[in-house]
Amino acid sequence: MSLHPTDFGNGLVSIMENDAFFLDTNILVSVLHEKNKYHLACYTFITYLIKNEIPMCVSETVIAETVHSLARVCYIQDRFDELTLTNGEPVNKKAARALENTLRREWINKVIKNDPLRLRDYNARAIELIRPLLGILFVIPCNDEIIEATLDIAIDTPLASADAFIIAAAIHPDSGCRGVVTTDRDLHIVFQTEIFSSSVANEDFNAVELLSELDMIGYLLDSLGPDEFYSKYPAMKDIIHVIGE
Predict the structure, then answer these.
(1) Contact 79, 109 (CB under 8 A)
(2) Strands 21-23 and 179-182, sheet pairing
(3) Is the link from the previous residue into 226 a cis peptide, with omega within 30 of 0?
(4) Distance from C-alpha of 208 to C-alpha of 129, rounded to nearest angstrom
(5) pTM for the complete prediction?
(6) Residue-range definition of the domain harbouring residue 191
(7) What CATH number did the domain enclosing 131 receive?
(8) Domain count, the chain
(9) Distance CA 170, CA 163 (A)
(10) Would 101 be classed as within a structural domain?
(11) Would the N or C end of the chain have less CB density within 10 A of its end CB?
(12) How far apart are CA 72 and CA 125, in angstroms?
């Protein structure tokens, strides 16, 4: 097992009837946070799995990490917009990264440690974002076998313990997963299962080509509605598509 040769943000990943996929935390965050760098690639691939009724699994750890990450990115985005809009001047990439790093520290020191009401509000926003997905995700509960596998993977691969936990859950027989979907390059060294990944950023995502290849245009138009569809995939405004009844 190794990294799948097809970048799912740039080409068709063939799926089979009995396939299932384990979703890493970063995939859920990318799908649910529209300003995430890999939102379009991840949103499109996960919607492709949903359209084809392919089971998707997560662990308890993934759900907890996703709520935490979404709360943090929502806070950072709000504060970033507040500070930059107040200033009124455009922010270059270097300055933007520096400000985001400052806001990450602010999230920990000011919100998590000292502002329980604000933490509650951002947790609530994160839970509201993830809740619709919880109804279609299969949760692999932790057990002694997964814990032992985590410890082995952390040493044998090696991986950070949180990543090892994800791989251990993904390869457990109860998951039945073909592989792990992730944008985490640290997982590219995993040999216990197949890794499905993308490095296609939103600005490089070829919606016209990939949506056609995946046969997703009609499905996305129906599920999102025309306004949201063209807002998410503005390049599609430039083509004329006739969708059969």
Answers:
(1) no
(2) parallel
(3) no
(4) 27
(5) 0.92
(6) 21-205
(7) 3.40.50.1010
(8) 1
(9) 11
(10) yes
(11) C
(12) 10
